[in-house]
Structures are given as structure tokens and as C-alpha cells.
Amino acid sequence: MGPPWQHSSWSSLSLRFSSYAVDNLRTVKYRCEVCGHESAKWMGFCPQCKADGALVEVPSERRSPRDKARRARVVTVGQAGAGEVVRRPVGIGEVDRVLGGGLVPGAAILLSGEPGVGKSTLLLQVAAALVAHGGRVLIASAEESLDQIGLRARRLGITGDGVLLSSERDVDVIIAAAVESQPDLLIVDSIQTIEAREVGGAAGGVAQVRESAARLIHAAKESGVPVVLVGHVTKDGGIAGPKLLEHSVDVVLYLEGDLDRGLRVLRGLKNRFGPTHQIGLFEMREAGMTEVTDPAGLLATDHLGEVPGSVVFPAVDGRRPLLVEVQALVAGTSLPQPRRSVKGLEAARVLQVLAVLERHAGLSFDGKDVYVSVVGGLRVRDPGCDLPVAIALASSLLDRSVGAVAAWGEVGLTGEIRPVAHGDHRAVEAKRLGVHRAIGPRGNGHDRVDRVLGELGLMK
Predict the structure, then answer these.
(1) Most distant pair of Cα atoms in the chain: their distance
(2) Residue 460's Cα: distance from chain center in Å?
(3) What is the dihedral of CA 382, 387, 388, 391, to 10 degrees?
């Protein structure tokens, strides 16, 4: 017996969707593609954000009298959600971890990431894994031709009739193809390249993205078939398109990683059906994405404890401990403005640690270039990285090695070291990888960065 959503009526969805499009009387208004401000008339600039030529024509919806007369369904809180949610595992452990156990019927999932990070490759492998367990997947791509997708599939060793492909730009045609093929999962790559013919503006604009996403999400909820929308990111790393898109979907996933390295991180930013801030780790190889079952072994096995400026940091991302290596290099410079280069960490936190070291530890970085990096291409958002950064900076400045040391703790502006969550898990993970000396705050109020540096012999 197949999953519950296989028994939903795709034909009834087609009829409902057709009446949905016909019964709406539309009026014209204009919306800014930059800030989303709406105006009743067109102007050469947005009156709110002052962006030139940002107003585009958007048809607004007004419900027909028949829709206004329809009675709303009202149930008690006890009746709502009384049935158990049946998840369907994807078949890829790292993806199922981030999703909270698998796909939920009717879920709308947004997957974003930088160009070339591997979004399409990962989704093609997800489709193959579902098909291997008796599923059926439709991939609608407006960015690539069918031959291009086929070439990638053959490179990944994916064959068979369970993965269906379509290269269409019209959102209504995509929904009609899903009605006809009745898949267990619909993948749209990407939401910025499809369009609705009744909506003004080019594909990728605010109006087109909102309307196309709304129709696809409506189809997913009506049919019970999960839909994955692939989204691009802007220059500042945000998801392109209106912010409303993140609020409309049930799950927001972000695939990140250094394009020059093989490590990829699938991060769950939002999940209405499970825990958030979970991560899945992959390594990009010629045969596609490979799961990383022991991330600490991958990221810190080459740690050289006798080199100045190197410290092990047991980071915790979500609920998962990751042992990474923090490296720092302090070198003299002849430039009037010394460089401050940070990779894999928040630059503001590193600059704050530099200021604390100068003020409370008596270490001067004046006239010095400072480089701080997390080895392996991983981006660390854990506030506990302050103490290992401070130790690595002091070690490099004084050219003194601290040996194989694991450290964690948040450094305050007054020089105190504050406790961070999961201290016991960090110590256990460091010991498992052979780092037996761990430095973490005890939370007694006496932990200070100058005292820790003094114990390590890193004070002048």
C-alpha cells in the first residue's frame, strides 16, 4: 500500500485550480520589486524606497460573489491534527535528519543556495532515492533542457523510469503535468525562472515569484503531494524574491559550502513539522553528493598541534557537535591600513575579540595583518568560537604553540568568558578525536581571557 497522498484526487485538484483562476476578477496595481510597496498608479520610481523603475504591473485579486458566499470550515482544536502525521523517508540519511524524519504530505519546501553549490545535484539524488523505494518524482526545470538534466543523471548513475523530467516555464503547465503524471514529489527548479501568464512583469520579479509560488503551494496542499521550490540567493546571501516566500512555505533549507572545497552543509532554517537549525553534511565528489557520517574526523584529522596559531574548536551546530580547526595568522605589514581577513566566522566577532585582547590582555595588533579562518570551508555561527579565536590570535602573535588544545567560550567586552551550551558534549567530542586537553568556562564568574592566556603561556 502506497503513501497516503497517492490516494488524493489529482483530477479534483485540476477542476478546483481551473475554477480558482477563472472566478477571480482582477484589477491592476503596481508593486515595487525592491521593497514590495504597492501603488495604485505607475510612477518612474518607488515612493517608498526611491528605487528608479522598480514599479511593475501586478494584477490584484478580487473574489467573485460565489466565493464570498462559501462557508468556511470550522473545527475544534481537539479535532485538528488528531491523526498521526505520516512521514515518508527520502532514503538519504542526512536529508532525512534535516527534514525531521522525512517528507510530510502536502509540505512546501524551499531550497536555496549559491549558484553551483549543488542544489540540482542533491535534488536529483533525492529523486533517485525516492524512486528506489517505490516512489515517483517529477522534476520541472526551467533553467536546463531535458538533455542537460539527462547528462547529469547519467553522470550520477541515475537511470530508470521513476524520475520524470519536464522543461517548462509556465506554472499552470507544470501543475497540469503533475496532475497527469501523479508524482509522489514535485521539484521545481527554480521558482525565479517560472511565470504565470496572467501576471505582469518578467520571471523572477516580485509579482511573478509570489503568484507562481502561491499556485504551487495551493496545489501541494490540495493534492497532499510535497513540492520542493529551488530559490536563488542575492549578493548579500538572502533568498531572492519577496520575504513572504519564506513565510508561505513550511520548510526552508539552505545549502552552503565553499565552492573551492568539497564540503556542503544542508541547513534547516525553518521547519513546521520538526526541529529547526538541524544540519546535514555532504562531500561533493564526481559521483555526486556523498554523506559525511563523521564530520569531526573529516574537518580536524589533519590538525597540527605544534603549529602556532592553531586551536581545535568543538562547535555545536543545531544539536550536532562538529570538531573544526581555527587558524590565525598575525604578520607585519608595510601598508598604512592593516588587513583584517576573516573566513568561516562572523567578522564582527573577530574584531571584537581583537579589541578585547588589546584592552584586557595587553596584546597589541597595531601595524599587523590579521587573518582568521576555519579549516574545511565550514561557516561557524557558534558564539563559543570567541575563546579559540583569542587563543589562536595570541599564539600566532607571540609565535608560541599551545599544542593539542580544544577550547570554547564566549568572550565578553569586559574580558570575561561566558559559558555556552552543550559544554559536556563538546568535551566528549574533543576527547573522542584524541584532543585530551579541553578549556571551557566553568561559569563561576572568575573565567577571564587574560587568565586563560596566562595559563597557556601566551602573555607577554
Answers:
(1) 81
(2) 43
(3) 160
**Cα 251 vs. chain centroid, distance in angstroms?**
10
| Residues 193 and 12: beta-carbon distance below 8 Å | no
90-293: CATH topology: Rossmann fold (3.40.50)
Q: Where are the domains of the chain?
A: 24-78, 90-293, 297-455
Distance separating alpha carbons of residues 404 and 313, to the nearest angstrom: 11
357 burial level (CB within 10 Å; 0-12, 13-18, 19+) = buried
pTM of the predicted structure, to 2 decimals? 0.75
Q: Which three cell numbers stand for residue 287?
A: 559521483
Q: What is the pLDDT along the chain (460 residues), one digit of tens a residue?
A: 445 445 444 555 554 444 444 444 445 678 787 777 888 888 888 888 888 877 877 765 555 445 555 678 888 887 776 667 789 999 999 999 999 999 999 999 999 988 888 999 999 999 999 999 999 999 999 888 999 999 999 999 888 789 999 999 999 999 999 999 999 999 999 898 999 988 877 788 778 888 899 999 999 999 999 999 998 876 555 555 556 688 889 999 999 887 666 788 898 989 998 888 788 889 888 888 999 877 766 665 555 567 899 999 998 877 777 888 899 999 998 888 999 999 989 999 999 999 999 999 999 999 999 999 998 777 888 899 999 999 999 999 999 999 888 999 999 999 999 999 888 888 888 887 778 888 988 876 678 999 999 999 998 7
Q: Which three cell numbers stand for residue 228?
A: 520542493
Range 297-455 has CATH code 3.100.10.10: no
Give the integer Cα–Cα distance in Å for 389 and 340: 14
